[in-house]
Amino acid sequence: MALKLNTAYFLCYKLPSKSSHGIRSSAALMPSTLYTKTNRRQAHNNVEVTHSMPPEKIEIFESLEGWAQHNLLMHLKPVEKCWQPMDFLPEPESEGFYEQLQELRERCKELPDDYLVVLVGDMITEEALPSYHSLMNSTDGIRDETGASLNAWAIWTRGWTAEENRHGDLLNKYLYLSGRVDMKQIEKTIQYLIGSGMDVKLENNPYNGLIYTSFQERATFISHANTARVAKEHGDLKLAQICGIIAADEKRHETAYTKIVEKLFEIDPDNSILALAGMMKKKIKMPAHLMYDGQDDKIFEHFSAVAQKLGVYTAKDYAEILEFLIGKWGVEKLTGLSSEGRKAQDFVCGLPRKIRRLEDKAQARMRDKKAYTTVPFSWIFGRELRV
Ligand SMILES: [Fe+2]
Ligand SMILES: [Fe+2]
């Protein structure tokens, strides 16, 4: 059932019922002091599709609960075996605290501005965890119905969130102690971002949500592994260790999410390939794409450009992630698909090459035009970087 909803519906913030499919034309009115121009523009142009998974498919996720119990929860680490931020930070209760702090600040002196901007952007992305938790819990078939449900999907989402929470926490504290960045601007950016949410077109559909999260976990694994590499190049071995240990968590989460989607491809290949093609057609937006610092409407694009320039996360990584997922899920070898499914399969399998070709052309155009500009970043006290 497609449901068209009017503006009044949005103004009263009524939530759609669990089983309804909705297409919502969004001209939502948002308080101008809370949101970026990009955010407001997006709201005006937006058509929201919600609950796009046919209700009968819910049974698939109910029937997979036992599977999740045995095959998914094993990828969560018991709390007592997990690292905690304090394992990598100066100990405030210790007599050596000031000395440890001094050492940390000395190490951080060598970190260049472009690296700091990328690390801050990564940290802010991690700190918007409430949005990611909320998104998982608005996904049909896998949501936590009570907030403390003993359903395996719900246990997974809470455990995953609890593990993720350490990432932003550790990076935030480290950057604070470094004295190299404008923490108040960073805190404002986090507040803006959580207030804006994220709009990555998952349609409350678990096929979309689990594909998106598989992609993102691998993207964050690559990004944190690269910030570890660059920290090492600049001599901050502790920071390299921090970024490396976070990357290892992301890798474990990637294994878990890709395993779920692998199972979906096994039992429902047609719907899975259609969901993957659909997500790729919409393009995988980064979770922090609505980032704003109160000053720069394009701060997310500018942060991404610095990350690309530094080689921490690039358009080529995007293509490689897709290629990796295609291999992991055996997309090229799928058989018995509907004609729509086969078209989706062809589209997805041809996409990495297409993305690389477009990226090469875009890079060549940039080089020809020397189309670089410099922008100030509030996170580093307004110092300018080339993007
Ligand atoms: Fe994370
Ligand atoms: Fe993650």
From TrEMBL:
Top-rank taxon: Eukaryota
Protein name, as recorded: Acyl-[acyl-carrier-protein] desaturase
Native organism: Melia azedarach (Chinaberry tree)
